[in-house]
Amino acid sequence: MQKLAHIVSEVKITFDSCNLYDVELTAEILYKLSKSARLLDLSILPKYATLVTPGRFYSEEEWDYILKLFVQPLIALLSRKNPPFRALDLGCSEILALHASDFLTVSSICTAQPQHLERLAFATVKQDPGHYPLGLIEPPLLEKCSALRVLTIDYDSLCDELLQTLQQLPLLRQLIVHVHGIDEDHFGLSEDAWANFRSKNPDAELHLTLVCAYEAVETLPTHILRPSMPLTHLKVLFCEKINCDALEYLSLHYKDTLRSLIWVDSMRIEEYRNIMELMMHTEQDPLVMMAWRCKKLQELIVHGYLLDPRNLVGVARLRGRELKVLEVSGVH
């Protein structure tokens, strides 16, 4: 802080967000950095979903603490005109991402230069994936971010109108979406919206991640996935279910785009037989069909489920040297 804060252009702060001392030290560093005229890229990387404060969880004291010690320094950086700020990564922090609209609002005023923002990471990991406050982002707030190349965002904040705004950003290359719970008022995104987005942004990739999304994994092929999605990466983490209909959907609709599938659950020996029976009830192993149809598939990682070794050999033979990673759970 004393020797380098005024000269560095990129900073990543990794800290134990369940330790109040670490949180307070991080706040001190942020305050010092907010005075820097050279900082262009900042990543705040808490180790846990929780950001501990002296106040209670989501209490008025906690909001005041976060606002004063974290939000205001970030606003100072985003509102700076010269040199314009380039990238902000909130490290999947749930409480900081609730201020995403504030950050975008201050970067859109005339004194700042949002047209220089290249990367914004507002997607989160929830402390309680079944119950959490929604942080909505108004689509017009992103209109001026013409240089934006990477945007991470929660599915709760995504809608047809926001997707229409994003299709006006010519340099957008990665849209990374985190799915948690599915709010009853969220109607999903339409096929037309994704088709228009893909036609206007032919080079954009969609990375879709489900994190402890117990309801969303059930309705993945019916409520979330759409044929025109430019889906290149799907990651399903600890959703306690493998959805074979979703795997079949992937191989049918993303054969020209899908490059990576990661499906990870905890190991539960008592569930192995049920999973094997579920696989056998389909006409073909969906992973084999994916390897056959998806010509760009380079990575396949499945943990928590027992898979037929013969089918895994089939996957490897179908993809050949183009398959860079094949990783499954071993059973002893």
From TrEMBL:
GO biological process, one term: positive regulation of protein ubiquitination
Source organism (scientific name): Anopheles maculatus
Record-linked Gene3D superfamilies: Ribonuclease Inhibitor
Alphabetical list of InterPro entries matching this protein: LRR_dom_sf
Chain segments annotated as coiled-coil in the UniProt record: none
Protein name according to UniProt: F-box domain-containing protein
Domain of life: Eukaryota
PANTHER family the record matches: F-BOX ONLY PROTEIN 33
